[in-house]
Amino acid sequence: MISKKLFLSVAFLITFIANAQTKSKDILFTINDKPYYTDEFSRVYKKNLDLVKDESQKDLNLYLDLFVGYKLKVNKAHKLGLQDGQAYQNELKSYRTQLAKNYFNDTKITEELIEEGYNRLQKEIKASHILILVDENAVPADTLIAYNKLKDIRNRILKGEKFEDLAAKLSEDPSAKDNKGDLGYFSAFRMVYPFENAAFLTPKGEVSKIFRTRFGYHILKVNDVRPNRGEVTVAHIMTLAPKPEDADQNKAENTINDIYKKINQGEKFEELAKQFSEDKSSASKGGVLNKFSSGQLSSEEFENVAFGLSKVGEISKPFKSQFGWHIVKLIEKHPVKTLEEMKPELEGKIGKDDRSKKIVASLHEKLRKKYTFKKENKQLAAVAKLVTNDYYESKWVMPTTGFDAKATILTVENKKIDTKTFLEFLEKQQKSVNPVKPVSKLVEVLYDKFIDEQLNAYYDENLEKEFPEFSYVMDEYRDGLLLFDLMEKEIWNRSKTDTIGLEKFYNANKDKHLWKKRISATIFSSTKKDMIEKAIALLKKGVTPQDIKTKLNTKDVVNIMINTNTFEEGNEVLPKGTKLELGTSAITKDGEYFFATKVDKVMPAGVKTLDECRGKLTNEYQQYLEQHWVDDLKSEFKVTVNQAVFEKVKAELK
After folding, report:
1. CA distance 564 to 171
2. 167: domain range?
3. Distance between CA 462 and CA 480 in Å, rounded?
4. Which positions ≥6 away from 305 have C-beta within 8 Å?
5. Of 607, 624, 644, which marks where a domain is finished?
6. Less CB within 10 Å around the terminal CB: N or C of the chain?
C-alpha cells in the first residue's frame, strides 16, 4: 500500500496551486455544471512540465484527460460524503496547524536569532555561577529579598572575596558545595537563554551583572573562552574505580594497564572492549559512545583526552577519571557545521528555547498594529468583580449567573468576542497564576494577554484570505486527503480482497509475468582460496553446505560464507561466469573474494504462478481498476469540455 505522505506528494504534483486564479480565465470544462477554469489548467501544466517523467503527460490532450480524471475523483469523494468524516477533518486540521506555523514566525527576528546562535556556537565558555532560588511566580516582596541577597554576595566578590569560596558557601545550587559553582565548558543552546546571554556578554575574568532565569537570580564569572571543539565520536574501555571496601584497590589500574599492553601487542581494541570494558552500555558495541561536545559528559578529564586525539584510530594511554580508568580510541571528529548546514537545526532549537519568546512578542506587536481592536472597559470592570482571591490558589470557579455571557468584551476588526469566552480564558489561566495584586489589577493584566490571544486567533482564521499561497496549499491538502481516502475505499482495499477478480486478471496477463532460467544452488565465498578448495573437497565427500560452514569456521574466525537460494539468470549475486547447469563450478575470483557454486537443480524459463508474482500483479490490478473506474466516473458525472477554449489554451501553451 502506498503511504499517505507519498501519495499526497504525487497528488500535489498534479494539483499544485490548482486554485490560483487570475482575472483572465475561461471555463475549460464542467463536471455536473461545476466550472473548472483555463488558468488553473495552464498553471498546473506549466508547473509540472519539468517534474513529470512520463512523456505522455506532456501531451496536452492526455494531460487534460488526466486532469479531468482527478477532478472526477474529487467530485466522487464529495458525493460519498468523505469530507464529513471525523478522521479526515482531524487530519486536515492537523495539516493546517503545521502549515500555519510558518505564518506565525517573524522571519527577521528568526534570522537574527539563528545568526546569533551560530556565532555563539563558534566559542565555548567556561563559567562558574552562584544561584539564589526564587519561584518564577513569587510575589514582589520575596523577589526583592532574593535579589538583595545576591546583590550582597556580588558586592563581596567585587571587594576581593573569592567567587568560588562564596559559591560553595552561599549558592543555592545543590551541586555548588562540591564544584564551587563550576559549570565547565558550554556553548550556545546548552543553558537557558538568559543564562547564555549573561555568559556570552560578560568578558573573560569578570563577574556578570545580576540576572534572572526561571530558577531564580544568578551571577556568573567567565573563567575561560576558547574556540568550539565541535563534536567527537570515540570508543573506550573502562575499568570501574574501586569501592572503599574492595580489598584490591589497584585492580582497576592493573587491569587497564594489562589491556593497554594487549592493544600494543596488536589485539583489536573492539574485541578487548567487548571482553573487558565495565561500561556495559558501550562494551557490546566495541566501546563506541554516542558523539558528544564539550560539557556534555560528566567528566572533563575524559572530554579533554577524547578531543586531544588527532588521528582517526589513535588510542590514548590509560588515564583516570572520577568514574575509573579508561583507554580511548578516536573514531571520528565532527567540526562545527556551516551556517547553511545548521540552519534547520538551529531554527528547531530556537522554537523550543526561551528565544522563541522574542518571536512571539514581535508577532503580538505586529498584530496590534495590523488590526483595529476595541476594549470594552465597562464590561471588563464588571467581570473583574466576579473574580475573587480564590484565584491565587487556583480554586476560583467561573460563575454561571450574575453576568451577561453574550455581552461583548472585545472587538477585533468586525469580530465580537463575548464575556463568556474571556471568563473561560480566566479560568484556564489559574494553572499559571500571576502574583499581581489586587485581583482587579490581575484581571487587567490577563485581559491584555487575552487581547493578544484573540488577535492571534483572528489572524489564524483569516490566513486563507490574507495569503493566497496558503489557501492554494490548503486546497491541495484538502483534495489530496480526500483522494487518498477515496482510493483506499474504491481501489486499494478492493484489489486486496477481490481474489476472483485478481485471478481472472492473472489469467488474462500471465504471459507478461515470466521467469528466466533459474537454478537452485549454494554459493561459497571466502577471502582465502584454500578454504574454497577445502569446501569443494568436503562437498565431494557428501558433506552438506551447512556442515561445511560449521567445520571451516571457528568461534572467532569466519573463513567461509554460504548462500543457498534460488537464483534467476542474470542475478547479480551469482559469481561472474556461473553456468546454469548441474554440478560444482570451478573456483573463480572477483576482487578479494574466491567463489564456487554448487547447482542442485536447473529450472527452465516459464510462467510465474499467481503467488510468485502476487505483489507486482496486485499493483497492476490496482492500475487496471483505477483506469476502468475513471471510465465509470465519466458515465456517472456529466463532463462537458469547451473544445474551442481548449484549442486556444493549447495554442498559448505551445
Report:
1. 69
2. 123-227
3. 22
4. 316, 319, 326, 328
5. 607
6. C
